[in-house]
Write a structure and sequence with these properties.
4-stranded parallel beta sheet; 5-stranded parallel beta sheet
Length: 294
């Protein structure tokens, strides 16, 4: 959903330029996109059926499910060609979906990870990543040219295809700044078991009657007894209003969240999802960056 979030900013900018846009995504993504752009033409695209394990071992989870991921990748190549042909598409923009490209038109790949945060013995994964990216005509990087927000993840000496487009945030859609009258917004995301662990660590703070706190979570927890007195929100548009008015955001250190916080210029308290090396790296980078600003 982080990729979807920043794609909303791309759609917003393209619409302002009077482009005719088609959005391809799964049912849930289409539902959310149409909350923001009711008249947007949408095409169903089968999702990658990837499920996170319960121990935060994302690399291992990827390996176990690689066979079906490759199958969907091949199917996605065919799907994209069919979409381009049927709707007369001139340009394809893919947010980190390797298989969403066409041999018939110009293709753009969006990513903040030119370099994956893998260990030395996972070099093969990095090489495959680069090879798949190079099949696109151009790569848009949502960051500044000095990689201020993604650090080493987006730095590259081979920049012939790279275009740094700056921070992307869906909150661009709302324009003017809002009055900050909510003390804290807590954003709960990720696999349910890890999200629940995260929420449990914050439970005492969340029950602080002296603060105005909102909890944003798309997850329907199976056991919410201990959270029944807390204020949950799962609707994206409603959640946006809370976030816009928040003085501080507590969340995982996902890249789209970091871009949103930067755009909104609010305080934050971030924590990486256990086992997700990208978030662990971004957490350290964000913490170091904020310490320099103090």
């Amino acid at each position: 959903m982080g990729h979807l979030s920043r794609s909303l900013a791309v759609i917003h900018r393209l619409r302002k330029q009077n482009n005719e846009i088609y959005f391809a995504g799964d049912s849930k993504q289409i539902e959310i996109v149409q909350m923001y752009f009711a008249d947007l033409k949408c095409i169903y695209l089968e999702p990658y059926q990837f499920k996170f394990g319960t121990k935060g071992r994302f690399g291992f989870d990827l390996l176990l499910q690689s066979r079906k991921l490759v199958k969907r990748f091949k199917g996605e190549l065919k799907d994209c060609e069919s979409i381009v042909k049927e709707f007369g598409i001139d340009l394809v923009i893919s947010d980190h979906r390797y298989g969403f490209r066409s041999e018939s038109v110009f293709n753009i790949f969006i990513t903040h990870q030119i370099n994956l945060p893998v260990k030395w013995w996972q070099l093969g994964v990095q090489l495959m990543h680069r090879r798949l990216m190079n099949r696109f005509n151009c790569c848009w990087i949502p960051d500044t040219e000095d990689s201020e927000f993604s650090g080493n993840l987006s730095k590259s000496k081979d920049n012939k295809k790279l275009v740094y487009i700056g921070v992307l945030s869906r909150f661009e859609i709302y324009g003017n700044a809002q009055v900050k009258d909510i003390d804290v917004v807590v954003i709960v995301s990720g696999p349910e078991n890890l999200a629940l662990d995260y929420l449990n660590t914050q439970i005492d703070f969340l029950k602080n009657d002296d603060l105005k706190i909102k909890i944003i979570s798309p997850i329907a927890f199976t056991n919410q007894d201990k959270f029944k007195n807390l204020d949950f929100c799962s609707n994206w548009l409603e959640a946006d209003q809370y976030i816009l008015k928040s003085k501080k955001i507590i969340s995982r250190s996902g890249y789209s969240t970091i871009m949103d916080i930067s755009y909104l210029k609010c305080d934050s308290d971030l924590l990486p999802t256990p086992g997700q090396r990208e978030q662990e790296y971004l957490y350290k980078l964000w913490k170091k960056r904020n310490e320099k600003l103090l």
